[in-house]
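Appendix B. Chain record.
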Amino acid sequence: MTLKYRYIIFLLFQLGATSMLAQKAERDYIRRGNRFFNDSVFVDAEVNYRKALEVNPNSTVSMYNLGNTLSQQKKAKEAVEQYTAAAKIEKNKMKLAHIYHNAGVLFLATKDYKQAVDVFKMSLKNNPTDNETRYNLALAQKLLKDQQQQQKQDKDDKNKNKDKDKQKQDQDKEKNQKQKDKQEQSKPEKRDNKMSKENAEQLLNSVMQDEKGVQDKVKKQQVIQGGRLEKDW
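Structure tokens predicted for this chain:
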């Protein structure tokens, strides 16, 4: 055996040994995580599942278990992310059914009924005999229908309220206009003090006639007294 082949065999051995060690480390972390999970020590369980994923980022078991642990800690969004990542990799139908089922339970809890219906259907597609998933699917469908009806009712009520508000605004506007018109009508009318040209001429003629009569009267008086009056200085 040449030196070249010996070197290749050595590398393969090393890679195999490294792989075995990694697999052992992954299994150890998962086992520890499972013990903590069963004891309800979810924070420590999460730490170990994450360490298992550091060793093997494609471990669907670690993803699934981590999702369950996060779910127990009320971290729904993070849990769904782990289930989604696992579903993209996992090939085993039974495991896929469990992944989708647990994701559906979370969507139910967060009232995302549309998503719940979708993932429960995926779960049944991979395991059609699961009656629990079938029941959850029926529940999610009913809750989704109720939710959609309530949303429609809320929308209708909102539109009705908008119509009522507009009608009230129109009525108030009309009422204010009527009050304004009434106030305008109650104001005293302004008399037109302007004199037409014809009236002015008539008044002027009348004054001139009166003045002529006074002048004639004064002249007669002067004649009677026998002398003409002069202005005082």
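Further analysis of this model is presented in Appendix C.
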